[in-house]
Amino acid sequence: MSKPFKRILFTGAAGGLGRRLREHLHAFADIVRLSDLNDFGPAGEGEEIVLGDLGNRDDVFRMCEGVDAVIHFGGVSTEEEWAPIMNANIHGLVNLYEAVHTLGIKRVVFASSNHTVGMYKTTDLVDATMPPRPDGYYGVSKVFGEALSRYYWDRFGVETVCVRIGYCFPEPSNHRQAVLWLDLPDLVEMLRRALITPAVGHTIAFCTSDNPGAWWDNREARHLAYVPKGSSRGFTHLDEGRVDHSNNDDITLKFQGGGFLNNGPKYPKN
């Protein structure tokens, strides 16, 4: 069966989601080029490995050489001090889009995050036309990524689907995680739709499974025809439905960012 692409690049292959997604990426391309900062083992059949630092322009150009599309999961994926976030998520993304534009790559799938909107209340229904409200440095870096990818679409015609990923772990353990839960097959389906849908321009898509008590309205990404099949309804030990935490003093319950709001600004250690 013919695959959509000859060669794709997947960054962040050594990360938690990267390791879980790896075996599913072969459906998208004849060759999957995997990249991360540190060694994560040998290439398998139909794979290439190109290690490199996203903050290093030459490394990023080497990663991108000869690929047809990029799925970008690389970078710092948790709240952290600003310096590593700046190197990987800011400088790294500028390097990536410079390479994508220079080398003529026309499609990027950018792993954005629910933390771009983490300062909305859990009683809000958020769509992609509403202003970002990040809940930390990590969320700020993902807002930057969405803005940078918009610039490269408006100015240079590089298409990007920014996927605001929910809680993609094997199972949720609290109400917030149940609302934002994302079954791995549903994430794979979103990636497929983001890669093959024609004329996506610049799209911001929320990505969860079909859960009760939704906080997000995905109408701005309707053209992707993403239909999740998983649902947190099966986890019967959890409280289901919309819960009004608006008067709760616990900010992790009041705002969509949850536990990230306990972190606060992280300055360099002395």
Give a structural overview.
The protein has 270 residues and is α/β, with parallel strands linked by helices. It has a single domain (5-262), classed as Rossmann fold, CATH 3.40.50. It contains 7 helices and 9 strands; from the N terminus they run βαββαβαββαβααββα. The protein has helices spanning 16-21, 57-64, 82-103, 137-156, 175-180, 184-196, 251-254; strands at 5-11, 29-35, 47-49, 69-72, 107-113, 126-127, 159-165, 202-207, 216-217. The strands form 2 sheets. The protein has a 7-stranded parallel beta sheet with strand order 3-2-1-4-5-7-8, sandwiched between helices. A two-stranded parallel ribbon has the order 6-9. Helix 2 (57-64) crosses helix 3 (82-103). The longest helix is centred in the middle third of the chain and has 22 residues, at 82-103.
Helices and strands, with pairings:
Layout: E1 5-11, H1 16-21, E2 29-35, E3 47-49, H2 57-64, E4 69-72, H3 82-103, E5 107-113, E6 126-127, H4 137-156, E7 159-165, H5 175-180, H6 184-196, E8 202-207, E9 216-217, H7 251-254
Parallel strand pairs: 1-2, 1-4, 2-3, 4-5, 5-7, 6-9, 7-8
Helix pairs in contact: 2-3, 3-4
Shape: globular
User: What percent of the residues sit in helical stretches (DSSP H or I)?
Assistant: 25-40%
Task: Compute the average pLDDT.
Answer: 92
> How is the largest sheet built, in terms of strand order?
3-2-1-4-5-7-8
Query: Which CATH architecture is right?
Result: 3-Layer(aba) Sandwich
Largest β-sheet summary: 7 strands, parallel
Question: Which value, in Å, is the CA radius of gyration?
Answer: 18 Å
| Termini separation | 56 Å
CATH homologous superfamily grouping: NAD(P)-binding Rossmann-like Domain
CATH class: Alpha Beta
- How do the SSEs run, as a string of H and E? EHEEHEHEEHEHHEEH
Give the strand tally.
9
